[in-house]
Fold this sequence. Notes:
Elements: E1 4-10, H1 17-26, E2 33-40, H2 47-52, E3 57-61, H3 66-75, E4 81-84, E5 89-90, H4 95-104, E6 109-116, H5 121-129, E7 144-147, H6 148-153, H7 165-175, E8 180-188, H8 191-196, H9 198-213, H10 218-228
Parallel strand pairs: 1-2, 1-4, 2-3, 6-8
Antiparallel strand pairs: 4-7, 5-8, 6-7
Amino acid sequence: MTKISIIIPILNEANTIAQLLKYLIxxxxxxxxxxxxVVDGDSSDKSIEVVSQFKDIVLxxxxxxxxxxxxxxxxxxxxxxxxxxxxxxxxxxxxxQLIIEEVENGKxxxxxxxxxxxxxxxxxxxxxxxxxxxxxxxxxxxxxxITKKLFNEMGGYNEDYIIYEDNILIKKLCQLKQFKVxxxxxxxxxxxxxxxxxxxLQYHFFIIHLKHLFGASAQSLYNYxxxxxxx
Length: 231
């Protein structure tokens, strides 16, 4: 039977992870879920303590780095479908059945269209654009489902990228025409926009995309992120 392994990389998500885990358990069918795997990247808050309170959750420790964390989660997954999810993103109810239906129809990877939990007009517009299949509209906060077979064939996430790892993999999947945007909303947090300001953060994200387009290295992208966003 087709089953989904949900993989959630976290770093200091004590304030959000419990709500997400409860939601995932309540919003999916047990028969469709192989396991929920939380991969902690050496959190310094109470994330591990919070996750440990959920008896059916698989908790794995890892080096910090989303690509590394997600790859480790994939290696430990028993499901035939992998579902990578941010700790602050909530997929639509019955997301598991929606994913399984797409895979059974021959779409072996994809995501949901996205809506921010914020009414700022620009963020609403950005969310609206995620309904389209264009690679430029993609990002990890829309989540990613992919068969384990295809994930392994693609070599997993490129661990050279500390940021932008989602975009690198999704771009390859779109080129293979193996990607489907499910027309149901995943609700994701706008907390980073609230912290830095919508226009300031959007500008820096645009520069990161532009730098990658013109051949910047993975380390160069990360250095820019450290300097302008993660401070």
